[in-house]
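User: I'm writing a tutorial on reading structure tokens. Could you give me a worked example: one chain, its sequence, then its tokens, then a sentence or two explaining what the tokens reveal?
Assistant: Sure. Here is the example chain.
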Amino acid sequence: LRSIVTNVVEIPADDSCPDCVFIEDTALVIGKSHAVVTRPGAPSRRPEPGPVAAAIHRLGIPQIDTLRAPATLDGGDVLVLPWAVLVGISRRTNNEAVSQLRAFLRDTNGPPLYVFSVPAAAATAAAADDNCDVTRAAASDAAHNNTLHFKSVLSALDTHTLLVADTPIGHA
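And here are its predicted structure tokens:
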């Protein structure tokens, strides 16, 4: 990594937080002057943002906002692009987090925020499946439960090209 990135910041591993390797879940960096420290949806991950926030502070980012309870947000549900921030409501990211994030972006003249719903996409995918042997509600629950994060179905190839999973929930 150090051979291709000029500034790598290493944060010591925390053996009490086995998912801390998924560092993108703990903070959103929005340009060079703004970061938002998240509040992970899984209670076991709540200790993780502290060390990441401290590292961001040491980097000198001038505006650091922090989501507060009852907001929950995982970075796997957020795609930060230069022209917008895309957020997916999921099992790990709730409407309160979206509300707080929207306020932070507005207060810092950040990019617009667009919100998508993983459960709604799962329901749409289930409704479109006419050959389903189970009820639509059960199919929707199964699709939602198999899709942990918004970025499980949507990713950015570059700042103008989005990749969508070729699955029923991705199509929805």
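What the tokens reveal: DSSP finds five helices and eight strands in the chain. The chain has a mean pLDDT of 90.
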